[in-house]
Amino acid sequence: MLVSYHRVDELGVITINNPPVNALSHGVRQGVQQAITAAQADDSKAIVILCEGRTFIAGADITEFGKPMQAPSLPEVNAALEASAKPVIAALHGTALGGGLELALSCHYRCATASAKVGLPEVTLGLIPGAGGTQRVPRLIGVPAALDMITGGHRIGAEQALALGLIDRLLDDTLEAGALAYARELVAAGAGPRRIRDMSIAADSCDPDTIAAYRDRLHKRRRGQEAPQIIVDCVEVAMTTPFDEGLAYERARFVERTQSEQSAALRHMFFAERQAPKVPGLDQAVAPRNIERVAVVGAGTMGGGIAMAFANAGIPVTLLERDQEGLDAGLALIDKNYGITVSKGKLTPDEASERQALIAGTTDYQALAKVELVIEAVFENMDVKKQVFARLDEVCKPGAILATNTSYLDINEIAAATTRPEDVVGLHFFSPANVMRLLEVVRAAHTADAVIATAMALGRRIGKVPVLAGVCFGFIGNRMLRQYVREAQLCLIEGAEPAQIDGVLTRFGMAMGPLAVGDLSGLDISYKARQALTREQKGDPRSYAIADALVEMGRLGQKTGAGYYRYDPQTRARTADPEVLAVIEAQAEKHGVTRRELSDEEILDRHLMALINEGFRILEEGIAQRPSDIDAVYVHGYGFPAYRGGPMFYAGRRGLRAVRERIEGLHASTGEAHWQPAPLLVELVEADQTLDDWLASRTRAAGQ
Ligand code: 3HC
Ligand code: NAI
Fold first, then answer.
1. Domains of the chain and CATH, by start
2. What pLDDT shows up at residue 508?
3. Residue tagged active-site, from 102, 236, 273, 372
């Protein structure tokens, strides 16, 4: 039974049990409504509402959005709770989120266990609270705090929630015993219903200028996102309109949001992230290995960040460098990075020291003898990596997982440098590794199922989005990135300027444009990588001529004050540089390209179609398990806007037929082989199928 009602002495207790997260699906809404009606009719003096399992209600059932709503709606259930003639007490544990918190706010009192968290995360799904959140929260905690809470979407710990007034009592006891004791106390004190709807918002709570400034800040910080501004609309309505009108306004805007493209995309991402770590077909008999201690080899940019990622999750790390000097530099960088986090107020000095204490430096491989996992992050050079793996093979205990963070190298070849290729896997982190959520888990030819299962579980444990990839040049993300960067270079040589290209892509929602990213990471990095490639691997010379020329002029990007742009040494503000235009024009002439005007639409489409076409190839080769994994890679590793759902979701919304036609159009106009539409794309369009159809038929064929 999803919802039950029973009596404990003078109290009526409503219990919800809808695993895994007690989402407010239709049956739960109906059950709560029936229970509250039953409770009104008996002689109970107060009603307690709580949940079984790991959490209080974590929100509306996201799978129901976009489908016809079945009565009762959550606002109807909440109205019944709020109207109760007897006091209703919500008892929170786990995560009381979204509609779950809104239901609790319709109760008259709220108590919570110390570990409980509350929040209104609707904004992260492109939604707004749809059952009173924007109307009740400002009444309860004031407009400024409400705006931060609802537009931020973050979770608030029980203690802070108590301080804000979102909850009334912290429980020292277990949930049910504590909640019943609190309810008895309220009954004894003769406390009646206390309805937030009857509270008023202080007239001086927030003036129009403050709201306008808030909106401006949101425009900058949540660029391109619609929901945050609509939340401000609703809170403004709460300030000026009677409660029921405000509620109706909020509901109408919420329903609109459930039908919006941005919410469809963000809901897709919600499920994509949770789907990605699942690997059907793994041998179910093998359990993931236990990982208690980790080592990282190489304390450079990536090694240091990876060490921090583990320390942040409370896992001890040994960091190995080739000499003391390298180790000191690596540890100093980690120290500096923690210092920055503390100065931003994101960690206390004590928390930072605790984490840093989990990282031990060494130059001795024997220190790696006891760890369960080693991640190699040395130079991107096959010989160096092979030497490291041969050494790891000698010192690491049996069953230890030996992982490489290589960006492009063949992991099968690296694995062959050991006597245990079944324990070798790619764990490809993204820079900065302590921040970026993507983790590509690369399965090599001999990688054991247990190693994949362990990597997926560990990835989640350290807060990453782990995505399975197969071995190929660049795996999923960097393989797609090459196509994208190539288009940026071709657009430049054919007629665009850096600011136009970056402007088009940032307006689309990318965190940064491709040329600004190049300047940030340093143009010398890809230059050096290109030097190691054969002429054939490098591809069309027009696709790197400008980048090479800039590096050869000493324009390496931000670090030299000039790359595709010029940078102010103090502020790092970037401006267009006529010298770059001269370089572009000279390279165009050298390569026989007549520059022309490129429309924004052409620039955008060429970048997106390049990603999508490669995405289809990656799918048909089995390098990615499913389309949504590619979306998770691009959103969490490369700054693709989550509110557009990733390149493959975008392709589906645009329509595969339209995508194929666009790619064929580019092929016809350029004659370039890379614009041949991927066979899988052609096949799906011909069969009139979607990517979901394709995935479903593959899953059926595999018997999963
Ligand atoms: N609806 C449907 N399914 C949900 C769900 C929801 N609200 N929340 C979680 N799930 C599912 C997940 O998809 C996952 O399914 P799977 O096992 O098949 O992959 C399962 O529950 C467990 O979820 P997690 O793996 O995320 O479990 P965690 O323990 O890591 O996290 C959580 C739990 C913090 C509750 C997290 O799931 C979460 O943040 N959920 C979403 C919360 C949310 O956004 N609520 C607001 C919804 S919108 C709303 O309420 C509108 C209202 O204003 C009207
Ligand atoms: P880096 O040059 O900053 O760091 C490499 C470190 O390895 C140096 O500190 C060096 O002293 C150390 N090292 C070299 N040989 C060693 C050895 N034999 N034993 C121990 N330490 C040794 O390089 P970075 O950028 O950290 O890259 C490391 C790896 O991560 C490469 O394979 C790279 O392709 C990959 N990678 C890099 C990303 C980036 O954005 N920089 C992103 C994802 C992967």
1. 3-258 (3.90.226.10), 294-473 (3.40.50.720), 477-598 (1.10.1040.50)
2. 97
3. 102
Residues 125 and 176: their CA atoms lie apart, in Å, by: 31
Burial per residue of 65-104, b for 16 or more beta-carbon CB atoms within 10 angstroms, e otherwise: beeeeeebbbbebbbbbbebebbbbbbbbbbbbbbbbbbb
Task: Identify whether the C-beta of residue 538 lies closer than 8 Å to the C-beta of residue 489.
Answer: no
**Is 614 a known active-site residue?**
no
Supply 611's token pair.
């990603």
Question: What are the residues facing 500 on neighbouring strands?
Answer: none
How confident is the model over 415-472, as pLDDT tens digits? 999 999 999 999 999 999 999 999 999 999 999 999 999 999 999 999 999 999 999 9
* CA 233 distance to own-chain centroid: 26
Angle CA(374)–CA(375)–CA(378) in degrees, nearest 5? 125
* Ligand 2 pocket, Cβ-based, cut-off 6 angstroms: 297-303, 320-322, 326, 330, 377-380, 384, 388, 405-407, 429-431
In this predicted structure, what is the pLDDT of residue 315?
Answer: 98
- Mean pLDDT over residues 358-378, rounded? 98
Is 601 designated active site?
no
| Structure tokens belonging to residue 90 | 């919500």
CA distances from 336 to 111, 290, 342, 352, 434 (A): 41, 31, 10, 11, 13
CB contact at 8 A, 318 and 294: yes
| Coil, helix or strand at residue 391 | helix
Q: Give the tokens for residue 640.
A: 């693709």
DSSP state string for 80-123: HHHH-SS-EEEEE-SEEETHHHHHHHHSSEEEEETT-EEE-GGG
CA gap 418, 422 in Å, rounded: 10
pLDDT of 78: 98
Structure tokens at 567: 């940078």
Q: For the beta carbon of residue 299, count every other beta carbon within 10 angstroms.
A: 27
Over residues 603-662, the pLDDT tens digits come to 999 999 999 999 999 999 999 999 999 999 999 999 999 999 999 999 999 999 999 999
Give the bridge partners for 466, in sequence order: 439
What tokens were used for 670?
Answer: 């350029």
**SS3 labels along 294-332:** EEEECCCHHHHHHHHHHHHCCCCEEEECCCHHHHHHHHH
The pairs formed by 660-667 with CB atoms below 8 angstroms and a separation of 24 or more are 660/685, 662/605, 662/609, 663/609, 663/612, 663/613, 666/605, 666/606, 666/609
* φ and ψ of 655, to 5 deg: 100, 125
Terminal-to-terminal C-alpha distance of the chain: 29
Cα(378)–Cα(380) distance, rounded to whole angstroms? 6
| pLDDT range class, residue 701, cuts 50, 70, 90 | confident
> Strands, E, within 166-308: which ranges?
169-171, 294-297
Q: Is residue 656 helix, strand or coil?
A: helix
Atom of ligand 2 nearest to the CA of 521: 40
Asked if 189 and 108 count as a contact pair (C-beta separation under 8 A), the reply is no
- DSSP code at position 556: -
Q: Which amino acid is at 481?
A: L
| Mean pLDDT, residues 14-42 | 97
Q: Are strands 424-429 and 438-443 parallel, antiparallel or unpaired?
A: antiparallel
Residue with the smallest CA separation from ligand 2 atom 29 is 377
Mutate which of 297, 407, 520 for ligand 2 pocket (most atoms within 8 A of beta carbon):
407
Concatenate the DSSP letters of all residues of 581-644 into one string: HHHHHHHHHHTT-------HHHHHHHHHHHHHHHHHHHHHTTSBSSHHHHHHHHHHHH---GGG
Residues having CB within 6 Å of any atom of ligand 1? 20-21, 23, 55, 58-63, 74, 95, 97-99, 102, 121-122, 125, 127, 129-131, 133, 274
